[in-house]
Amino acid sequence: MGPHPWLNSTSNVWVVDIGNSGIKVTLAHSTDNAAHAVLQHGQLQWSTAQVQRIWQATWKHADLDSATHNKTKVSLRSANECILDVDDPTWPTQMIDGVHTTFGLAPNTAPDAWLVSSVQRRAWQNWSTQLQLLRPQDKTTKFENHDLAWTLKVDYPDRVGTDRALAAWAAWNLLARRAPVVVIQAGTAITVDAVDEEGAYAGGAILPGLRLTLNALAGGTDLLPHLTAADSPAELPSLPGKNTEQAMLAGGVAAVIGGIEHLLRRYQSIWSPSIPIIISGGNRAYLSPLLTYSTRVVDHLVLLGLCGLLNSNGK
User: Fold this and answer.
1) How far apart (Å, rounded) are the C-alpha atoms in residues 118 and 116?
2) pLDDT tens-digit series, residues 81-100
3) Residue 255 maps to which CATH number?
4) Active site residues
5) 3-class SS at 107?
6) CB half-sphere exposure, 279, CA atoms < 13 A
7) What are the tens digits of pLDDT across the range 122-133?
């Protein structure tokens, strides 16, 4: 089975990762083989594959600064990051305009195609409805796990988050289909999944990310403040914490790091102490330096997985 027919029939093909905290978009393919397109001449070379440029936005409901109506003491959000409301019907317009501007492409020169992985149901409904109204010449398709010709050894394969399946499939391909491998996706929630020794998706674990952990502390108590974490701390938070914020951050990081490392130890006991570990996701820059395990950082695994699907039709 060869490449997806979109690669021969449309000028720009975009891949879109719609998550619970926001959106990421990159240019998968363009007819002029733009340098920032992941697929060059319709091909993805896994040994050198990377996403060099993205457009991204955060959902307003997932942005702690917006949710608390004030500036938190430390923020995860970058200064130029776009904030969108998942229920606002204009956000697809903002995304389309932002994507074309970011990649220096005219938005109306030719029909575009959009391959979407979405774990946010309201966002997908809004996107698919509005795109038909805004750009009826465009095509959009929602990725489903059965689009991959890959075994998912779980109870309900179609219920696995598409981001988890795509990230694991991409990691397996990046390692030249060497197995087993552990894949960490560090986002709003943190998933620590495994590809087993037979090269099949074996399932994994889901735990709250640092943002959710700290937000739960604030939301479940009367006096604890809303707090987020710095983008890329150089070291673990100081201990013992000398004020409430320091104590919360020390405890939150301990819970997250300790949970991940506990899971990694268990995976090693199942397979091998040398099992490769790949980490991706929006908070990977925060977490990776704090782990005592050797990890390979790969940005935008879900987008890479979507590009790989286009290249191979999921084979």
Assistant:
1) 6
2) 689 999 999 999 999 999 99
3) 3.30.420.40
4) 163
5) coil
6) 21
7) 999 999 999 999
